[in-house]
């Protein structure tokens, strides 16, 4: 009986002889640009422009050293991390109560409001450039981390509300009622019972907020100049009189991938669950 | 303890959910019986304070609690779905109402949690999360949480409906002993007539948002005052046949029997059936009172076509088609084999027929047999067992 099952499993695997090959081919295609960039980042500029080879002849960490010693580079890297984290935290603080309200209460125009939130995501970010620039200039938010974080909430809060509402609606209302009967006040119920139940949703939402804020360039670049300049903006301004510093740019690129990779490593289980449960 | 509902009404989206419910319940157990959508859950939610009524008052121990928020009320609620706090252990689940009440010390809470857990057979499972428990254990946890804190009103909304048969039987027995001498008002709803009968508690029959009848369940079963009560307390469902009372005889599908003397129940003054010129009636008979093949003297014979025979092992349910495309189900003892499509004859002793007025649904006449059974306790017990 057990042997029969094993045989069946083997046969099932044998049905797709090319699966492995196709997978690795696909993976290699995806990875090639990244590998190429990594290769560039550990080579001097002359080698990058001179010879064509996958394996670097003279490996060096000079590019990385330049990155971490030049304030223009590392400070913009930090800027991005700061406003992205601020944005994720602020978006969650606003979106969790909003999503709870949408999932639990019926009020006049609730469905319209919920849909209207999403429409905020339908306009291209360029539309908001001018108003943001003008308003920030006049209220003193221009070129601040807080300013970028708030600007990014424009498209992250609707997304966060949308994701969280899906999760929260999957939690039976009876749990809220039971808590009320037991004597929990709403804030206490939220902290003690409700938030632990939607941990994975919060993880998924934080990841998406982080990701969208991290990759957003247009708004972040327009409303900053020096103090809160994002790393992506610095990367687009590397053409100097001496030409393009390919190696340094590649090193910055590699480092820019890392925070995203770290975040997704932490939430990888939650994201899988989130795709299955929520409306990601 | 006393729970009084006074003229409670509730409407939602133009539908009547509760219609003028007035009840007086005292300490101990009260059963709330009715089919689906009868208003059982709605009524419980109103009592708990989860749903504000449009009109009427809810009074507990003389104090009007109609507008008191849920958190401030002394109630506990057990849902049909197994509702526990998933992020807390079984221990913390049971302890949470005690911790919030703040009237017990840490040690006192610990003692109480262990006591209730022992009572519900959860002693070994206190460290587990609800997700790591079986359905029966999850519901035990929910019940334990409801029992932990002494409350004025304990509400159990079909607590056993989502459990499998064996667990249900066992928990039912446990709950019955547990609530016997309870000082709280325990309101227990069920759609299952067997459950209502086995608890043998004062019973409220609900239907379409109204109170159909209040009384002792055994008596209601033996002499259902209305068709709705008879239907709510019959499992398998009551067979219903059309009939006419004319010249002192009840006519039904080509056969007839002498109309029994009309009873005059105290709560519903009814005119003497025998004096009516012609009156449309509804005849009700429980499936286990229908026999096949053998009819004693005076039984009614209905020619029938066999449509379906369901064998459960201890019983065979025979679905029959009578003249006029009327359906009749017979519950026969043991495993019996029938061929669908064949003709047969169904026999019903008129003594087991309930005659209801078609318009009001009130019982006009019950058979002598079932009246006699209310008189003697021994035969009441026999009558109460719906599978007997």
Question: What is the secondary structure topology, with strand pairs?
Answer:
The complex is a heterodimer of chains A (280) and B (388).
Chain A: H1 2-14, H2 19-41, H3 45-50, H4 62-69, H5 71-104, H6 110-119, H7 129-139, H8 145-169, H9 173-182, H10 186-197, H11 199-215, H12 218-222, H13 231-236, E1 239-240, E2 243-244, H14 246-277
Helix pairs in contact in A: 2-14, 4-5, 4-14, 5-8, 5-11, 8-11, 11-14
Chain B: E1 2-12, E2 15-26, E3 28-33, H1 40-48, E4 55-60, E5 63-64, E6 75-78, H2 90-101, H3 106-119, H4 135-148, E7 153-157, H5 165-179, E8 185-190, H6 193-199, E9 202-207, E10 210-216, H7 217-222, H8 227-232, E11 239-246, E12 249-252, E13 255-258, E14 278-285, E15 290-292, E16 300-311, E17 315-322, E18 326-333, E19 343-348, E20 354-357, E21 363-365, H9 368-375, H10 377-384
Parallel strand pairs in B: 3-8, 3-9, 6-7, 7-8
Antiparallel strand pairs in B: 1-2, 1-4, 4-5, 9-10, 11-12, 11-14, 12-13, 14-20, 15-19, 16-17, 16-19, 17-18, 20-21
Helix pairs in contact in B: 2-3, 2-4, 3-4, 9-10
Largest interface here, residues on each chain? A-B, 15 and 21 residues
Q: CATH homologous superfamily of the largest domain in chain A? A: MetI-like
**The top level CATH class name of the largest domain in chain B:** Alpha Beta
β-strand percent of chain A reads under 5%
In angstroms, what is the radius of gyration of chain A? Answer: 24 Å
Structural class of chain A: mainly alpha
Uncertain spans of chain A: 1-7
Spatial separation of the terminal alpha carbons of chain B: 37 Å
Give the CATH architecture of the largest domain in chain A. Answer: Orthogonal Bundle
Please tell me what the overall shape of chain A is.
globular
Compute the average pLDDT of chain B.
84
Would you tell me which CATH topology of the largest domain in chain A applies?
MetI-like fold
The best one-word shape of chain B is globular
Oligomer: heterodimer
The second-level CATH architecture of the largest domain in chain B is 3-Layer(aba) Sandwich
């Amino acid at each position: 009986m057990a042997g029969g099952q094993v045989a069946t499993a083997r046969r099932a695997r044998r049905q797709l002889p090319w699966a492995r090959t196709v997978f690795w081919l696909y993976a290699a295609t995806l990875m090639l640009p990244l590998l190429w960039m990594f290769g560039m980042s550990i080579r001097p500029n002359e080698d990058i422009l001179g010879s064509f080879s996958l394996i670097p002849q003279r490996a060096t960490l000079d590019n990385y050293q330049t990155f971490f010693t030049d304030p223009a580079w590392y400070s913009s890297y930090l800027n991005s991390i700061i406003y992205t984290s601020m944005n994720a935290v602020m978006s969650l603080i606003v979106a969790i109560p909003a999503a709870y309200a949408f999932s639990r209460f019926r009020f006049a125009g609730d469905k319209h409001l919920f849909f209207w939130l999403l429409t905020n995501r339908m306009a291209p970010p360029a539309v908001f450039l001018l108003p943001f620039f003008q308003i920030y200039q006049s209220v003193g938010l221009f070129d601040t981390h807080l300013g970028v974080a708030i600007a990014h909430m424009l498209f992250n809060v609707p997304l966060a509300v949308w994701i969280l509402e899906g999760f929260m609606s999957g939690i039976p209302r009876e749990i809220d009622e039971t808590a009320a009967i037991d004597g929990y006040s709403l804030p206490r119920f939220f902290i003690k019972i409700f938030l632990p139940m939607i941990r994975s949703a919060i993880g998924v939402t934080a990841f998406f907020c982080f990701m969208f804020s991290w990759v957003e360039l247009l708004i972040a670049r327009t409303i900053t100049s020096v103090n809160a300049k994002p790393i992506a903006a610095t990367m687009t301004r590397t053409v100097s009189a001496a030409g393009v510093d390919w190696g340094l740019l590649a090193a910055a690129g590699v480092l820019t991938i890392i925070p995203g990779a770290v975040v997704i490593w932490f939430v990888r289980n939650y994201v899988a669950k989130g795709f299955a449960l929520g409306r990601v | 303890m006393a729970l009084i509902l006074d003229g409670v009404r509730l409407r939602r989206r133009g539908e009547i959910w509760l219609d003028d419910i007035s009840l007086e319940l005292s300490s101990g157990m009260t059963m709330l019986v009715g089919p689906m959508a009868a208003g059982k859950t709605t009524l419980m939610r109103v009592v708990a304070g989860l749903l504000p009524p449009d009109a009427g008052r809810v009074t507990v121990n003389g104090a009007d609690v109609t507008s008191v928020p849920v958190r401030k009320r002394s109630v506990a609620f057990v849902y049909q779905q197994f509702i526990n706090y998933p992020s807390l252990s079984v221990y913390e689940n049971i302890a949470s109402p005690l911790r919030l009440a703040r009237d017990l010390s840490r040690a006192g809470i610990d003692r109480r949690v262990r006591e209730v857990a022992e009572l519900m057979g959860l002693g070994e499972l206190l460290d587990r999360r609800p997700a790591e428990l079986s359905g029966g254990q999850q519901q035990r946890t929910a019940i334990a949480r409801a029992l932990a804190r002494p409350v004025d009103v304990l509400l159990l909304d079909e607590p056993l409906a989502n459990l499998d048969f064996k667990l249900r039987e066992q928990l039912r027995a446990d709950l019955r002993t547990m609530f016997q001498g309870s000082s709280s008002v325990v309101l227990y709803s069920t759609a299952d007539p067997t459950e209502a009968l086995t608890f043998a508690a004062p019973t409220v029959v609900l239907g379409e948002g109204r109170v159909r009848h209040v009384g002792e369940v055994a008596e209601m079963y033996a002499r259902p005052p209305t068709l709705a009560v008879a239907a709510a307390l019959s499992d398998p469902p009551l067979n219903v046949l059309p009939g006419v009372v004319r010249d002192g005889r009840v006519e039904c599908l080509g056969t007839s029997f002498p109309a029994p003397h009309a009873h005059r129940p105290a709560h519903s003054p009814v005119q003497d059936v025998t004096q009516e010129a012609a009156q449309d009636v509804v005849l009700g008979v429980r499936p286990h009172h229908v026999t096949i093949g053998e009819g004693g003297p005076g039984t009614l014979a209905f020619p029938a076509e066999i449509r379906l025979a369901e064998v459960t092992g201890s019983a065979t349910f025979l679905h029959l088609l009578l003249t006029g495309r009327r359906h009749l189900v017979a519950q026969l003892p043991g495993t019996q084999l029938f061929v669908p499509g064949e003709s047969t004859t169904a026999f019903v002793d008129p003594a087991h027929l309930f005659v209801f007025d078609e318009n009001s649904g009130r019982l006009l006449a019950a058979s002598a047999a079932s009246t006699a059974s209310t008189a003697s306790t021994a035969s009441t017990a026999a009558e109460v067992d719906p599978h007997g």
